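note to self — DONT lose this again. spent like an hour looking for the file last time. sequence + predicted structure for the chain T wanted, 176 res
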Amino acid sequence: MEVSAREGWTIIHGLVVGTVFLVAFAGGVAGLWSLRMELVTIEGIRERMRRLYAGVWGMAIIAWVTVVTGTYVIYPWYRASPPEGADLNEFPRSFLLADPDKDLWHKLGMEWKEHIGWAAPILATAVAFVVSYYGPRLARDNKLRWLTMMVFVAAFAAAAVAGVFGAFINKAAPIR
């Protein structure tokens, strides 16, 4: 089995970076969830904050790596225009748009990835800044902690939907 450079970048973008993203999200959401005064001591909050900083900043950074590699490395290959008479199998966007049964993958899936997918790193970075700014005060302010968790989950949801679309689009029209 041989993997082309383009397929390799797709694997790095989707599988490797996506896995790290999931781990960072799990760490961040668990840290926010358990950051409650009634559950831990002051020393416990300090210890949890170190993990929380790592989780939220890790997710923000990896989310930026994901959208930047997707937008500037993989997307140009996906979007390339075929020359006259070319085999559309080599040009994923054109291949999908040429088939009325598959054009929704581009019209919905890639539009989500191109536009809504960018919300993930923006929201994750906002959460990282809130956690850094408020720090241990999040343990005392349940409303702020819950709002921070909701924004964090929204960042994850935007990325998760984009990831699912990416996997299905790559299955329907792989970048070769």
